[in-house]
Write a structure and sequence with these properties.
Length: 590
């Protein structure tokens, strides 16, 4: 009877119906089937669980009445206010058509609202809806990337909403994208789609609260990348802390997850207080947060230095740079697999984005003044993180410290002030989003099976998990920036630009290239070679079909960007040149 019931589910699942007129007849039939099954089965709880899937949009027993109420309300408004309804629909359609960026920004928020109405027990429906909706957002962002105009350096797909008080605009709602933010948004949408896809796995199953938090985090991050008002950016830049705090604290993997969540919270909160003070000073000095207006505003050297330090602390903590990095390894170790993917692949990029969008263009004199400090901290991050990785025994901590080293190249490219280093720095940001996510994905595969991330429990995985070992080896090659991978292009451009500034920077940072090879090959040798030990793990299982698809989806962009880097550089040409214009004037006057 259960087999017959599942056949009814597959045949009459409401997921496959689009038009609301099907709801009534399908619901009546499903209720008839339900009564018949309840008469034949004694276990009513099991029956309720099996019958959960068809009721996606019915909202339980009140679905039919909700459907009738909706249709009556729609009929009432169309009957008595036909012109108002038609004009509203017409205006809404053309407003969204003229502002596609707003559709992409608010789509994750819409998904979170829809998920809040779906009953919690419908796990399969929640996960399928999340995957399909995230794929829609990803395709929409690729659509915007395809229509991005490469012949201009202006912000594109802009939308401005002025808020007035006493006939004077005192703040602005301004969104738009350029080459940098457009690429980062596509990366963000891709990684969130991957995370929702991973929630389909039995060991990593997503729940309603978990998926809602991921959609809210998605909304905050995309909005931060699109915001062209510094106050609006700060609001969503800090709002990302709330869902990430809940993801680590509620869905973490070990007992220290509460400690890690609070450590992330207080590090970010403390640094944001300095940024808030800087924004208040900036707003009362200029009276606006409009990025375009602020770029053309001249600040005194002393004011620039004060603002730069206040903003730098927050961006350096998010990047992170040494000594603001202590929250990152703990957060990665305790976060779930999908949380680590978003944390390394997207959230760290907000710090680099803040450097390129605000610190450099708004405060160029202070950026040049503090260039030695940033260079010193970058070299310390590159060298120290690589050395610390050699001493770790936790898989996630090794990858976390590796991320700190790669982000050191990002901040180093920022202060080289030439097109090679600037383009390479952004290239590393995008490449690191794929590579670090892939490595955390592999660690998640192991943890889901064997519930440990310690290296001492693993050996000779190549003999029992050959497919996993092959993908893990490819991702480690990308992590050491092997030629034909995306990381090689970024580091080559940064080092090429650094040679024009100071050869000592290149000499010191080149040591990390050797150390990355050492700990990466040591890690692979320890996990995949040696004698097979059955003392701690007896049964081994290679990756399944869903995990194989997720791994392939990350292999393709890593090697595609390594073989054809022009795909990214053509989007970054105008961004690099516009970023360096203000610095060229400074160096000419010097």
């Amino acid at each position: 009877m259960l087999i017959k019931l599942k056949a009814y589910q597959r045949r009459y699942n409401l997921n496959y119906f689009i038009f609301p007129q099907f709801f009534k007849c399908v619901q009546k039939y499903m209720l008839k089937v339900k009564r018949k099954v309840l008469r034949e089965l004694e276990d009513e709880e099991l029956t309720q669980k099996d019958l959960a899937a068809p009721y996606l949009f019915t909202f339980g027993r009140y679905g039919f009445y909700l459907f009738l109420l909706t249709n009556v309300a729609a009929f009432f408004f169309v009957e008595f206010f036909p012109f108002l309804v038609s004009d509203t629909i017409y205006d809404t359609f053309f407003f969204l058509y003229d502002n596609p960026l707003l559709v992409m920004i608010f789509s994750p928020l819409l998904a979170a609202v829809i998920l809040s109405f779906i009953p919690t027990r419908f796990h399969k429906t929640i996960n399928l809806f999340s995957v399909n909706f995230s794929l829609f957002v990803l395709l929409f962002s690729i659509f915007l990337l395809g229509f991005f105009d490469l012949s201009t350096d202006d912000m594109q797909f802009q939308y401005r909403l002025q808020i007035y008080a006493e006939e004077e605009a005192y703040t602005s709602f301004i969104v738009g994208v350029d080459g940098l933010s457009c690429l980062l948004i596509v990366l963000t949408n891709f990684l969130f789609s991957l995370c929702f896809f991973l929630h389909l796995l039995p060991d990593n199953r997503g729940s309603k609260i978990k998926n809602i938090n991921f959609f809210l985090l998605h909304f905050f991050i995309v909005f931060a990348f699109c915001a062209l008002d510094i106050i609006l950016f700060y609001i969503f830049f800090e709002a990302t802390l709330i869902p990430m705090f809940l993801i680590i604290g509620l869905f973490g993997t070990r007992e220290r997850k509460i400690y890690a969540a609070y450590k992330l919270f207080f590090y970010t909160l403390l640094s944001s207080l300095f940024t808030l003070a800087g924004l208040i000073l900036l707003f009362f000095t200029t009276g606006t947060g409009d990025l375009v207006f602020l770029k053309s505003t001249f600040f005194s050297p002393r004011l620039q230095n004060v603002l730069w330090v206040l903003l730098f602390i927050s961006f350096a903590t998010k990047l992170p740079m040494i000594p603001f990095h202590l929250w990152l390894p703990e957060a990665h170790v305790e976060a779930p697999t999908t949380g680590s993917i978003i944390l390394a692949g997207v959230l760290l990029k907000l710090g680099g984005y803040g450097f390129f969008r605000f610190l450099g263009p708004l405060l160029p004199n202070a950026t040049v003044y503090f260039m030695p400090l940033v260079s010193l901290l970058s070299i310390c991050a590159i060298l120290a993180a690589a050395v610390i990785s050699l001493r770790q025994i936790d898989l996630k901590k090794i990858i976390a410290y590796s991320s700190i080293a790669h982000m050191g190249f990002v901040s180093l490219g920022l202060v080289c002030f030439n097109e090679f280093a600037t383009t390479g720095s952004v290239f590393i940001m995008l490449s690191h989003g794929f590579v670090s996510s892939a490595l955390f994905l592999c660690v998640g595969f192991l943890y889901d099976r064997y519930k440990t991330k310690l290296i001492i429990y693993y050996s000779s995985l190549a003999s029992v998990m050959p497919i996993f070992s092959s993908f893990f080896f490819l991702f480690l090659l990308a992590n050491i920036s092997l030629p034909s991978t995306s990381g090689f292009i970024g580091e080559l451009l940064v080092l090429t630009g650094a040679v024009k500034v100071n050869f000592t920077l290149v000499f010191l940072s080149s040591f990390s290239v050797v150390m990355v090879v050492c700990y990466s090959l040591w890690l692979f040798n320890r996990l995949c070679f040696g004698a097979l030990s059955t003392k701690y793990i007896i049964l081994y299982q290679d990756i399944n079909v869903l995990e194989l698809v997720a791994s392939i989806s990350l292999v393709f962009p890593i090697f595609f960007l390594g073989v054809y880097p022009n795909f990214l550089t053509e989007y970054l040409d105008f961004f690099s040149s516009s970023f360096l214009i203000s610095f060229k004037y400074i160096f000419i006057t010097l």
